[in-house]
Amino acid sequence: MESNDTTMLDSVNLNIVQDSIKLDNGKLGSAKGLMIYDGMGIQIFGGSNAYSRLFASVLNDYRSILDSNINIYYLGIPAHGEYYMPDDYKKGNSESKNIAFTASILNPSIKSVFIADYLKQHRKEYIFFNTDHHWTDLGSYYAYQKFCEAAGLAATPIENYDIEYRGRFLGSLYQLTRDQRLKEKGDSLFIHKIRTKYKMKILVDPSNYVKGSAGQMYYKWNNTYGCYISGDLPFERFDSDVKNNRRLVVIKNSFGNALVPHLVQNFETVFVIDYRYFSGSVYNLIKSEKITDVLFPIPAFSSNTISHIQRIKSILKYTKSDLNSTKKDVVSQVTNDFPQGAVFKIQFCSSKVQLDSTSYLLKNIQGYIAFAHKNYFMYLIGNTKSYTEAESIRQKMIEKGYSDAVIRVFVNDKLIK
């Protein structure tokens, strides 16, 4: 059977809305590898589904290791190019499609928060900076709304914030290029300040979750994107006056900084980890602090960068005894999330170079399905109504070297996850 990556996606009904911007050559320019269009710096996305599979395998590791009662969320973040790049230059390499493909191969119990279409509805608003590679506070607020929907929380209405204007600035893309067109367009910093009472600590010792120094949610001596949560710090803690027994860990890079203040409004405690600099153990933190929710707000550029994928993987830091103690609990809650009659299959991929070894592995397996792609094969094996049995098969595939193995769920031969 021949297919491609979109075959699986279409059956999940992801509803990706295509943007349409007609090229005006008078607005087009470039500088140091950036496209500059209508005074906005736009990075060219170069990701692929191969990177998505690696990234998804890391998040699936988190799901396999952490207790099944912990909610895990993937919030893929598209950047400027998804909304403001002329059609002639997109060349089919869509961040939103890449994010959707990643979500489609995650463990079914990882909740994917899709924000691409929602941001598109607001693309005429000031949701991305012109001269900086980040989104604005308003853009992060819209992502916060979608996260709250997925997490069963009530988002704070935007009119319940206090807005502070900090003036004009030139961001990271201008600093990279010193381009006059970016300088002329410039940016403004509007901060939506939360009214929730909270205490913030900058944690220095990655194994001490209590002791730290005071920090500033909106660093007052900074009028750029760097003001949020005092910048890119390895480890921070926020305790609010919210009482709902929800405790969150945010594993992020700088794109998550503007999102964090919004999240503090909905959790008793929020731990913030910048995976690029954190040296502790996420596993130990989650276990020690009775964490209920884990959020990965990751830009598509980062989830398609090997060094970022490796860093996210490296900070989980669990032992073999940890694996043995949690593995048996992973499937208990997940099974109840699917309707009666659900059938579980294991999906994995192999390159054409691996074809002989994969064929040998599958020769005694009845009824597997192969989907051919120009660079690799995707397989579906197993046909069980037991999630526990499916998880056992998935673990065996991982041990054989197929680290992207993931459980897929079918009802009446239709893929639902």
The major pleated sheet works out as: 8 strands, mixed
Rg calculated over all Cα atoms: 22 Å
Provide the structure class: alpha+beta
First-residue to last-residue Cα separation: 21 Å
Give the overall silhouette.
globular
Total of helices: 16
Helical residues, percent: 25-40%
Uncertain segments:
1-19, 327-334
- Spatial order of the strands in the main sheet? 5-4-13-11-12-10-8-9
Percentage of residues in strands:
15-25%
How many DSSP-defined strands? 18
Mean pLDDT, to the nearest integer, reads 85
Summarize the structure.
This protein has 417 residues and is α+β, with helices and mostly antiparallel strands.
Please characterize this protein's 3D structure.
It is a single chain. This protein is of the alpha+beta class and 417 residues long. Helix content is 32%, strand content 24%. It has helices at residues 5-12, 49-65, 81-84, 95-104, 116-121, 137-151, 172-177, 180-185, 260-264, 282-288, 300-303, 306-314, 320-327, 330-335, 355-362, 387-399; strands at 28-31, 34-37, 40-42, 71-77, 110-112, 162-169, 187-193, 198-203, 212-214, 235-240, 247-252, 269-274, 293-299, 343-351, 369-372, 376-384, 406-411, 414-415. Strands 5-4-13-11-12-10-8-9 form an 8-stranded mixed sheet. The protein has a 5-stranded antiparallel sheet with strand order 15-16-14-17-18. It has a 3-stranded antiparallel sheet with strand order 1-2-3. Helix 2 runs parallel beside helix 4 and helix 2 (49-65) runs parallel beside helix 12 (306-314). The chain is globular. The chain starts with a helix and ends with a strand. 41% of the residues are buried.
